[in-house]
Amino acid sequence: MRDRVRELAVRAFALTGCAGLARVDFFVVGERVLVNELNTMPGFTQTSVFGSLFDASGIPYPELLDRLVKLAFERYRSERAHRF
């Protein structure tokens, strides 16, 4: 079930064109997993659900911040490269 939720979260993120961060919320009903909403501006403090979810998967808050900043710089460079 956990793998299915992760797969759906990644798919929802990609299909909606998200970049950087978002939180996908689900309902799990028996064996069914339903996407409830995609939150493109989730709470983002060290005690928010977003940070807590990453922490639970082994990515502490400071590392999460580093990864998001790195992704932002990579996206910026990539977008600038296509303009010229």
Strand order of the largest sheet: 1-2
User: Which series of helices and strands comes N to C?
Assistant: HEEHH
Radius of gyration equals 15 Å
Tally of separate domains: 2
Number of helical elements? 3
Average pLDDT figure: 90
Q: Would you report the number of β strands?
A: 2
Shape call: globular
**What profile does the largest beta sheet have?**
2 strands, antiparallel
Class from helix and strand fractions:
alpha+beta
- Report the portion of residues in β strands: 15-25%
Written account of the structure:
The chain is an alpha+beta fold and 84 residues long. It folds into 2 domains: 1-40, no CATH class; 43-84. It is built from 3 helices and 2 strands. The chain has helices spanning 2-15, 49-56, 61-81, and strands spanning 23-29, 32-39. A two-stranded antiparallel sheet has the order 1-2. A hairpin with a 2-residue loop joins strand 1 and strand 2. It is globular. It starts with a helix and ends with a helix. 1% of the residues are buried.
Features of this protein?
84 residues; 51% helix; 18% strand; 3 helices; alpha+beta; single chain; globular; 2 domains
List the helices and strands and how they pair.
Layout: H1 2-15, E1 23-29, E2 32-39, H2 49-56, H3 61-81
Antiparallel strand pairs: 1-2
TL;DR?
By secondary structure, the protein is α+β, with helices and mostly antiparallel strands. The chain has helices at 2-15, 49-56, 61-81; strands at residues 23-29, 32-39.
